[in-house]
């Protein structure tokens, strides 16, 4: 396996790990204040901008087919983890267990809802991100890397936020009266993260480009 192929495997694994961890920790919400601007965010949101960066890098160098494969693998892995946690939640804890049934259920009991919301959001938003990125690359003849990176990520993040919040509010995981507050906070952070991540995207693309020109995995 050559270096560029090993990189693809690494990016695929990293993408899956981030998606799974984001599903596990999403229940904790924090208040962040910068100057006079405050936002309420799930701690899981700090990870997801990285997944869009990864999918854009894969689309840039390996093609749409390879990027879609990564998304599908992350969904399969999330389903497996969801099933494992559900079974673990059903099994009774011993009297000496450091984590009792109530605590375990409180933390992981809604993982199914959260994972379902994430699965829908990941598939829809990442598919849209990949398509928009590839389309803009074709239209601009490979120029304006910053444009396709930011436009595709922001578009995908809007859909991601809408999907996740709608599903979680519908199942009572998040109160409906928090929908607009969390949506505003989430989108503000995600747009900032997309813009902030642009230089890193350029650096990653420059580094990969030194070893191998873009090619497609068929």
Which terms summarize this structure?
218 residues; mainly alpha; two-stranded antiparallel ribbon; 7 helices; 74% helix; globular
Oligomer: single chain
Low-confidence stretches: none
CA gyration radius, whole angstroms: 19 Å
Which percent range describes the beta-strand content? 5-15%
Amount of helix: over 70%
The main sheet comes to:
2 strands, antiparallel
What's the count of strands?
2
Chain-averaged pLDDT: 86
Strand order of the largest sheet: 1-2
Order of helices and strands: HEEHHHHHH
Our count of helices gives 7
Structurally, the number of domains stands at: 1
**Class of secondary structure makeup:** mainly alpha
Shape: globular
End-to-end gap: 16 Å
Task: Describe the secondary-structure layout.
Blueprint: H1 3-25, E1 29-34, E2 37-42, H2 48-62, H3 64-90, H4 101-108, H5 111-139, H6 145-170, H7 179-211
Helix pairs in contact: 1-2, 1-3, 1-5, 2-3, 2-5, 2-6, 2-7, 3-5, 5-6, 6-7
